[in-house]
Amino acid sequence: MSGTMPSAQQLAEAAALLEAGQIVAFPTETVYGLGADAENPEAIARIYAAKGRPSSHPVIVHVVDGADLSYWASEVPAEAERLIAAFWPGPLTLILKRAAHVPAAVAGGQDTVGLRCPSHPVAQALLSRFRRGRGGIAAPSANKFGQVSPTTAQHVRDEFGEGVFVLEGDGVDVGIESTIVDLSRLDQGVGPVLLRPGAITREMLAKVLGVMPALPDAAAPRVSGSLKAHYAPHTPLAMLDAAGLATQLATLNAQARVAWLGWTEVKDPRVTHVAAPASAEAYAHALYRTLRRLDREHYQYLFVEAVPADGAWDGVRDRLQRAAAAFNG
To answer: Rounded to whole angstroms, how far apart are CA atoms 272 and 267?
Structure first.
């Protein structure tokens, strides 16, 4: 992975802040995280306060490569071991039964814990220094709750100003949040469940697990990014096909300014066409940066062309559907 590394002094300062119960923003391969000591409930509360995040909405604990997961989880099933061997370090979060000493605050009061080993070198360097590699960093995305996640250090500063220490690092390559798989209910006869799609697709998981993960059910644990409305820009957003766009344009006045993120060309003076990337990977990488840029350009509406239906696009589709839900309810 590409990317510039912070200095040893900057990493040491970030680790010291975490040990002192403060919050630190740092890059991962998915998005920037807003981190705190996962074993310090007061520090975790600072994350919730900074983001304006409901305390019932869990955060993910990031651990160093090779961490002893039995410290964090009361059970580490064979299915978890197989997924770890295949995808860690990387953009996969596992939901396991929480060890009793791990604060309930990281799980929104539930008896589970979300664990992830990020592959970004800055994240790994910070985790290696924090409590000499034995600590966990609780970290949701470094943005105000429900808004577009950050993929650059400047995005984090745009959200929080200079009040949060930010470790810089290029190479936020994935661009959307991690895939989340629930393995906490295997002893109840509930197999693996895909709770949030991401760069690691359902099909990729099935190849490792030998079974297709189920889709979320009513009894599934609450996890990060699972609310109906999430990942939303400030500009009203809707996901449409080309015919739907034509219908929407027919309702708007001649002075309307509209951005259209898609593949289909539209000939309308009110519409600025933003070319959509061809692959799901490139689209995910650019998505949040594009939404933030279009917000700054003050369009009245942001219309996004519906993405392909195959599994590679599930993560992008999920983020766009939740972004649109913030404006259609």
So the answer is: 9
Q: Are strands 193-196 and 60-62 parallel, antiparallel or unpaired?
A: unpaired
DSSP letters, 258-303, are EEEEESS----TTEEEEEPPSSHHHHHHHHHHHHHHHHHTT-SEEE
Nearest alpha-carbon partner for 29 in 104, 94, 89? 89
Please write the tens of the pLDDT for every residue from 278-290. 999 999 999 999 9
- pLDDT of residue 1 exceeding 70, the answer is no
DSSP state of 104: G
> What is the C-alpha to C-alpha distance for residues 56 and 173, in angstroms, rounded to an integer?
29
CA distances from 231 to 54, 115, 226 (A): 15, 21, 10
Residue among 19, 27, 22, 36 at smallest CA distance from 3: 27
Residue 73 DSSP one-character state:
B
pTM: 0.96
∠ at Cα 70 (67, 72), nearest 5°?
Answer: 80
Q: Is the pLDDT confidence value at 89 over 70?
A: yes
Q: What is the reported pLDDT for 329?
A: 54
Positive/negative CA dihedral, 215, 312, 60, 158:
negative
Q: Which residues lie across from 36 on neighbouring strands?
A: 138
